[in-house]
Design goal:
Order of helices and strands: HHHHEEH
Number of strands: 2
Helix content: 40-55%
Strand content: under 5%
Radius of gyration: 31 Å
Oligomer: single chain
Number of helices: 5
Largest sheet: 2 strands, antiparallel
Distance between the termini: 61 Å
Shape: flat
């Protein structure tokens, strides 16, 4: 008797599962709806117009010049350099016809690198003697590279508090 009721429970579970899948598929199929008439025509015309407008306005020279300018220097969030880039993009957008373009100021709560006391990682042996230290800045190979490297922001973790972290050796 117990074996028969167990088979019945399994059969009912399978039937309910199959019915659930069928109902889900039917609901999904019929809830999509169809684009019809005027609305479908509007969508297809809109897409063609947008694609054509983009093709007419995009120029490889503009992309190259914009990327060259936007990557010409560091633009760390919350710095005057970053604000200058944002203002430049805003001006470009307004020149290109965006009538509601604006820059929103935010209070940037990041830890910034200190050039006078740069961050580094050092490996110490058991007695505390420094065995390895990461380079803070790359070495310049010529005067032009030195000028360029001096404008680069050194590596740092913007989302951590400033300070010194020491980690002991783990289990061996």
């Amino acid at each position: 008797m117990e074996h028969m009721s167990r088979n019945r429970v399994i059969l009912i579970s399978v039937v309910v599962g199959v019915l659930g899948i069928v109902v889900g598929v039917l609901i999904g199929y019929f809830s999509r709806g169809a684009s019809s008439g005027e609305f479908a025509d509007f969508l297809s015309e809109g897409h063609a117009w947008v694609a054509e407008a983009l093709r007419d306005e995009i120029r490889a020279d503009n992309i190259r010049d914009n990327l060259r300018y936007l990557t010409s220097g560091p633009h760390l969030a919350g710095t005057p350099e970053s604000k200058a880039y944002a203002d430049w993009v805003l001006q470009k957008w307004r020149e290109q016809g965006l009538d509601d373009a604006y820059v929103t100021d935010y209070n940037i709560l990041l830890s910034y690198p200190d050039r006078e006391s740069p961050s580094y990682i050092a490996l110490l042996d058991g007695s505390g003697t420094e065995r390895f230290r990461t380079a803070v800045f790359e070495k310049a190979v010529d005067a032009e590279t030195e000028e360029w490297l001096s404008s680069i922001v050194q590596p740092f973790n913007a989302y951590s508090a400033p300070g010194t972290v020491e980690v002991g050796a783990g289990p061996h």
